[in-house]
Amino acid sequence: MSLVESSPPLELSCKSRLSVARRADERFSWHWQAVRIAGKTAKLAVASDPEGMLIDACRRQDAGEQGVIDPFWATTWRAAAGLDRYLDRFDLRGRRILELGCGTGHVGLSAAHRGAQVTITDGVSDPLLLVRLSTWGLRNRCRIRRLRFGIDQLDEPPFPLILGSDVTYLRQLWPELEQCLRDHLELPGQVLLSDPYRLIANEFREWIQERNWDYVEHRVDLEDTPQHPIRVMQLQPR
To answer: Is residue 1 in a domain?
Structure first.
């Protein structure tokens, strides 16, 4: 069932949620985790053994199995918490927002908790099962879609704000990421991407500016790890 604006009757809603939970159970072990989102404690559906899932994916890849995707989505990365904190600077009420490479959906949930209408996307289907569960109480503000960079295009109007956390760590995906941004960004609009000051993101900074994007960098400090700040990259096409 798609998470759209109109809410179904309570009985149907409960059955639908249980159906999504059963589908997730069939794919991997998961649990509810208390996470600080938009300044409040919220429950996030997360994979229970992301390290084990990664080891299994590597084993299958080494055995020559085709189409195996590394489950990096299964962990909540610190870059998401940093971008969540950065969103404190904005009034997002009623704004249309797109989240790319959502993973656990932390950033999209942060925007929805702040009153935005959010389309939350990832390139693989497994994380979207858990994101559907995490966003259930905010389903009037959230759409869940699969979106592969450079391949898929959403059947929605462009977005004035696009968010993404830890989506710049693979150099080979940069052209597809940029195409996705240009396909879905409303003009004038802006993009906010976060990362934990990875060296490769320094490369991305130079690369994206060469492709006619204005670039401004912001630093976000997190209380639990002040020695490891998060970088927020603000992009606008020229």
So the answer is: no
For residues 12-25, one letter each, b for 16 or more C-beta atoms within 10 angstroms of the residue's C-beta and e for the rest, the string is eeeebeeebbeebe
Q: How would you class 138 by CB atoms within 10 Å of its CB: exposed for 0-12, middle for 13-18, buried for 19 or more?
A: middle
What percentage of residues in the chain have a pLDDT greater than 90?
79
Question: 62 burial class (0-12, 13-18, 19+ CB within 10 angstroms)?
Answer: exposed
Tell me the C-alpha to C-alpha distance, in Å, between residue 114 and each of 39, 92, 118, 200, 238: 10, 6, 10, 31, 29
Question: Residue 72 has what pLDDT?
Answer: 81
Q: Which residue has the tokens 């990832």?
A: 122
Q: If you compute the radius of gyration of the chain from its CA atoms, what whole number of angstroms results?
A: 17
Separation between Cα atoms, residue 189 and residue 161, nearest integer Å: 6
* 30-60 residue pLDDT tens: 999 999 999 999 999 999 998 898 888 888 8
Name the band, by pLDDT with cuts 50, 70 and 90, for residue 229.
very high
Strand ranges for 91-195 from DSSP E = 96-100, 117-122, 142-146, 159-165, 185-195
Half-sphere exposure of 191 (CA within 13 A, CB side): 28
Structural domain including 200 reads: 10-65+74-237
The pTM (predicted TM-score) of the whole model is 0.91
Return d(Cα 196, Cα 15) in angstroms, integer: 39
Question: Has residue 215 been placed in a domain?
Answer: yes
Number of domains in the chain: 1
